[in-house]
Amino acid sequence: MKLNKLLFFILISLLVVSCSGGGGGGVGTTSATLSSIAVTPLTPGIKTGETQQFAATGTYSDSTTQDITTSVTWSSSDTTVATIGSLSGLATAVAAGTTTIRATSGSISGSTTLTVTSPTLISIAVTPAIPMINLGATQQFVATGNYSDSSTEDITTSATWSSSNTTVATIGSSSGLADSVATGTTTVAATSGSISGSTTLTVIPVNVLPITVNGSLCSSGSYPNKPCVKVKICSPGSTSSCKTIDDILLDTGSYGLRIFGSLLTDISLTQVTSVTGGSLTNCVNYADGSANWGPVKIADVILGNETASSIPIQIIDSTYGTTSAQIRSLCGNPDVSPSSAGFNGILGVGLFTEDCGSGCVSDPNNGRYYSCNGSTCTATTASLSKQVKNPVSMLTIDYNGFIVQLPAVATGGATSADGFLILGIGTRSNNTVAGITAAYPTDSTGLFTTEHDGNTYSSSFMDTGSNGLYFDSSIRQCTSGTAAGWYCPTTTQSLSATLAGYTASFSIGNASTIFNSYYYSPYYNVFGELGAPYGASGYFDWGLPFYLGRSVYVVIDGNTVSGIGTGPSLAY
Description:
Immunoglobulin-like, 6 helices, single chain, 6-stranded mixed beta barrel, mainly beta, 45 strands
């Protein structure tokens, strides 16, 4: 190898010698001269206060070009319009007008015209629009300036902020950060010169969560009759390692908080260990054929401005612990992502504290809990303390139940509906028992009896997580399109049923007409008359439509509330 290399280098040296020519002639050099300078960008325009980087390109006598931005001398013909760094070519707009920007090298120069505009501020938009926060919480506002040239600009830190009622909330005059002081409303305004914009901030009690049915707390494109809340999740004991997540489905038919793990990658949560030493993993199946699979971890859960400390929650992860084939065999058809599921998580706040109870304590084949070691997951028991918990039942004050309040919606639908989840019953001045017409206990599984049209539905339950009223009936069904399988009476039916001895009215409308309103203008999303068969004898699912126009009280198992009784109990 060395000989080959040596031979190679000898050959190269011979070639070099042969190329040098005879007679001692050397390689000649060329001295090209600068002939012109081009300044770019051509005729730019910027607003006052903005900057513009210019570039200079030299063209030489041999037709070559070169970037000479940092070797020329820059100048502005009118420094009252714009100044420019003599070596950098960075111009700063000062006032409206025009100025010639020139680059010079020796006797050669090039130039362009810079136009500086000063568009007029014509309006200010303050966001978020009509926000609600809990007492003790803060709200960051943003001011966006709209200008005469149709441009917009974030002017949050340059505007002057004010609160019309500082006994409700104060706000930093230059920051736009509001601090709540007391419950009530205040007008928050951002002002610049003679232009201002405002919105209304509502401060609600610590035990209240806003609910939006297909509103601002829901993701865009949500399915009809979807009630959404937002929940704050923190690493146990931490006030800084937290994340607030909206598009959480409010579900009174299940128990426990379940959040997609992809949304919590920046928060450290403690894995719960199973009785056999593996990672405790949870499976929950739903009536629509979907399921949630994933590990059980410990987190602080903040509802409104109240904390359920160090409680087990489920991290939804359809790939956790083992092969997809085994997961499907153990848990059916788990949701894989927020977009496919239609939500970021589920807040299960039903009638019970644990998602399984005593059955999962003694029976390893409960179908809910598994122990995952590496790539193997096996059925296991789970003590009550390790089971996924209903966060309401773990609060320090308002743990005995809650009230769901939603407004009535006119026949034909509405674009959205805003209501409240009020934590606790009879524990504060804002959650007293009032105006109820029915109060009854459920059985030990949360079921009661409904009688309707000569039929008895012994397995009846209330569930905000169901987007319709589901019960088997002779009502005509739709046979085609997106409404296929839903009820489609020719005209809206005004009906009544007896729930545990109390009479309640409800309506069933034509789903084809309803869905036309959902998919086409005016884009209605909330309907009180949406119904379909349950598909199993004896079941009546009083879904979200039942809650519209009512205050529904839920007393959690083991608690007693004056005027309602001992839970599990319901009232409305």
